[in-house]
Structure formats: structure tokens, C-alpha cells
Automatic annotation (TrEMBL), chain A:
Alphabetical list of Pfam families matching this protein: ATP-synt_C (PF00137)
Lipid bilayer topology: Multi-pass membrane protein
GO CC annotation, single: proton-transporting two-sector ATPase complex, proton-transporting domain
Name under which the protein is recorded: ATP synthase subunit c
Entry keyword set: ATP synthesis, Cell membrane, CF(0), Hydrogen ion transport, Ion transport, Lipid-binding, Membrane, Transmembrane, Transmembrane helix, Transport
Domain of life: Bacteria
Main subcellular location of this protein, as a coarse class: membrane
Species the sequence originates in: SAR86 cluster bacterium
PROSITE patterns noted in UniProt: ATPASE_C
Site (Reversibly protonated during proton transport): residue numbering on this chain: D56
Gene: atpE
InterPro entries, per database record: ATP_synth_csu_bac/chlpt, ATP_synth_F0_csu, ATP_synth_F0_csu_DDCD_BS, ATP_synth_F0_csu_sf, ATPase_proteolipid_c-like_dom, F/V-ATP_Csub_sf
Similarity field: Belongs to the ATPase C chain family.
Length: 73, 296
């Protein structure tokens, strides 16, 4: 049981680091794109949310599996 | 089970499906006989809510569209909402799918989007409301007749179908089968096999190509299903953890939990809609890939 707590912590923490970097890069490029071509903002916003959801999903899977390790096993 | 309420029993109570299945003594829904059920075990609550919400979607959309066919009268209420969602899906299909003619894609995308959105929205119903209601109803109706219902708490009930990996992976594999079907019918079997074996290293490295492409191919439905499951499972879990604050702490922390519920619910609306949209967008993208015939 105590090892599954450690495993869940590592899973959630590492996946949060990865997604943090990913969303950071994505957001900076998004702002950069809008600064260069403000008329593309609505188009980019849809794509931005799509990609953010894709990136965001990886740590969420990690959190889901971590919670599963903690409570369901 | 009138056992003592602990953190772990509360959480596992919320994350266990109502499972009915066939054991050696016949059909039963007893939660303590789940491991004897084997293959014929049904998650009755997931099936009930997903099929019920699918029927609700068909009923509402059909009613809204057949009600007002007069173009000179401005649409109102539900019809506005239905037209908005249809236009939204149509825009996405147009931009992602391009000029390929396939009349199945847009209705499929609409179904996937609205159905998953409805199933995800069940997450915003307070975590204890429907399970406790279902437990009391089952106890009142069948408490005397069925031996394993010993009280309102003995019935497990999970309300959000998309927190059940069977439902999300089932939908993802449905999409997967459609991509294989369209790959074979549109490109032809030969081109489909060539796509799986001749990239990326050319025809002298067929085994390596096949393994690489196969991993890529199988990862698509699994990541599609697990993404939806993971997001909703984590969201539901956080709702449950906040609800625990109300039970097992002092009153000030309970009040804080009430506020946290509100904040998380508001943030969760974003996740709910975003995940439904992503599932739809990826469905369209995978099916569009199955229709691409040109060489890479």
C-alpha cells in the first residue's frame, strides 16, 4: 500500500511536469502567433484549445491511473 | 452492509459499478460475487445512463427539428440550441475533413459530440444524489425479496458512464473499426496493407515497418478512449475528495469544501465540453486519414 502511494505520487508529479512544459510552449507560440497576425486569433484559438486538451489529457490519464492505484487496487 | 463509513469505503463505494452477471447459481447483482461472474458481467448503471442519455439526445433533437419547419418563423429555445450544435459540428467537419464526400461523417460526429457531452455532464450532478436515491429506491422496492440488499448503502451505483473505461474504450474501438472499414473500402486492401508495411523505411524493411506502424495504429483507439476516461475519472475523483472534506472535517473546512465544489464544477464545465470536442475532432481526423489516398 505505501509503495502504491509513492507510485501514484511519481506518476502524477512527472506527468504534471511534462504537461506544464507542453502547455507553456503551446501558449507562448499561441501568443506569438496572435501578436504577428491578430486577424488569425479566432482560428488559432480553436486549434489552441484542441491542442491544449490533447496535451492536458496526458497528465489527466496519469492522475486517473494514480487515483486508481491509490483507491481501487 | 451497515459497516462504518470510512474514507476508503466511501471512495470505493463511489467508484464501483453496479455489476450484474451470471454466476454458478444464476443471475445476480451481488457486489460480493463480482469475481465469480467472469465474462457475463454487465455494468448495469453505465449501460442504463449511456443508453438513456443516447435516447434523450435522439428524442430532443428529433422533436426540436420536426417542430418548426417554417423558415419564415424565427427559431426559438431548444431549436436554436440544436441548430447551433449542428452548425458547430458541420464547421468542424468541413474544416477537418475537406472535400471528401462521405455523408456518414457529419451525423457520426454530431452523435459522438452530443452523446459524450451529455454523459460527461452527469459529472456535474452532486456526487451523492443519484447513488443514494438509487440505493433507497432499490431498498424500498426489492429490500425484502433480494437477499443481498441489506440496506440503502449495499447498492453500488456509478452515475457518470464516461468514468467507466468499458464505455470510452468501447466507443473508441467503434471508431477504430470504422477507420479500418473505410481504409479498406476507399483505398482498397492493397493500398491499406502497403500503408502499414512500406512506411517509413521502404520495402526491404517490411517487418520493422509493420511493427512501427502497428504500434501507431493500435495506440490511436487506446489513447482516444483512455484520454476521455482519464479526464473524467480524475474530475469525478476530485469531486469525491471535496465531498469527503464535508464529512470528515470540522465545520469551517466543510464550508470551504462547499466553495471548492463550486469552483471545481465551474472549471470542470470546460473539461467536460473540451473532452467531448476533442473526441469528436479526433474521430473526424482519424476517419479523414482513412480517406486519404495520395502517396506520402
Amino acid at each position: 500500500m505505501e509503495y502504491s502511494i509513492l507510485a501514484a505520487g511519481i506518476t502524477m508529479g512527472l506527468s504534471a511536469i511534462g504537461a506544464g512544459i507542453g502547455v507553456g510552449v503551446l501558449g507562448s507560440k499561441f501568443i506569438e502567433g496572435i501578436a504577428r497576425q491578430p486577424e488569425l486569433a479566432p482560428f488559432l484559438q480553436g486549434r489552441f484549445f484542441l491542442m491544449m486538451g490533447l496535451t492536458d489529457a496526458v497528465p489527466m490519464i496519469g492522475v486517473g491511473l494514480g487515483m486508481y492505484m491509490l483507491f481501487a487496487i | 452492509m451497515a459497516s462504518e463509513l470510512t474514507t476508503e469505503s466511501y471512495i470505493s463505494h463511489h467508484l464501483t459499478n453496479l455489476t450484474c452477471g451470471k454466476t454458478s447459481e444464476g443471475w445476480t447483482c451481488d457486489p460480493y460475487k463480482v469475481d465469480q461472474m467472469g465474462f457475463w458481467a454487465f455494468h448495469v448503471d453505465s449501460l442504463f445512463w449511456s443508453i438513456g442519455l443516447g435516447a434523450l439526445f435522439v428524442f430532443v433533437f428529433r422533436k426540436a427539428i420536426s417542430k418548426n419547419s417554417d423558415a419564415s418563423v424565427a427559431p426559438s429555445g431548444m431549436q436554436n440550441f440544436v441548430e447551433m450544435s449542428i452548425e458547430f459540428v458541420e464547421d468542424n467537419v468541413q474544416s477537418l475533413f475537406g472535400s471528401v464526400k462521405n455523408t456518414l461523417i457529419a451525423p457520426l460526429a454530431l452523435t459522438v459530440f452530443v452523446w459524450i457531452l451529455l454523459m460527461n455532464l452527469m459529472d456535474l450532478v452532486p456526487v451523492d444524489f443519484l447513488p443514494v436515491l438509487a440505493g433507497h429506491v432499490a431498498y424500498a422496492i426489492a429490500g425484502d425479496a433480494v437477499e443481498w440488499i441489506k440496506g440503502p448503502e449495499s447498492l453500488y451505483f456509478k452515475v457518470v458512464p464516461t468514468t467507466d473505461p468499458n464505455i470510452t474504450l468501447g466507443m473508441a474501438f467503434g471508431i477504430f473499426i470504422l477507420t479500418i472499414y473505410y481504409s479498406i473500402t476507399v483505398k482498397g486492401l492493397k493500398a491499406f496493407v502497403a500503408e502499414l508495411t512500406l512506411h517509413p523505411f521502404g520495402k526491404y524493411m517490411i517487418p520493422i515497418n509493420f511493427v512501427l506502424e502497428m504500434v501507431n495504429f493500435i495506440a490511436k483507439p487506446i489513447s482516444l478512449g483512455l484520454r476521455l476516461f482519464g479526464n473524467l475519472y480524475a474530475g469525478e475523483m476530485i469531486f469525491i475528495l471535496i465531498a469527503l472534506m464535508l464529512f470528515f472535517s470540522s465545520i469551517p473546512i466543510g464550508v470551504l469544501g462547499f466553495g471548492l465544489h463550486l469552483v471545481w464544477a465551474l472549471f470542470h464545465i470546460l473539461i467536460v465540453a473540451l473532452q467531448a470536442f476533442i473526441f469528436m475532432a479526433l474521430t473526424i481526423a482519424y476517419l479523414a486519414m482513412a480517406h486519404e489516398t495520395e502517396e506520402h
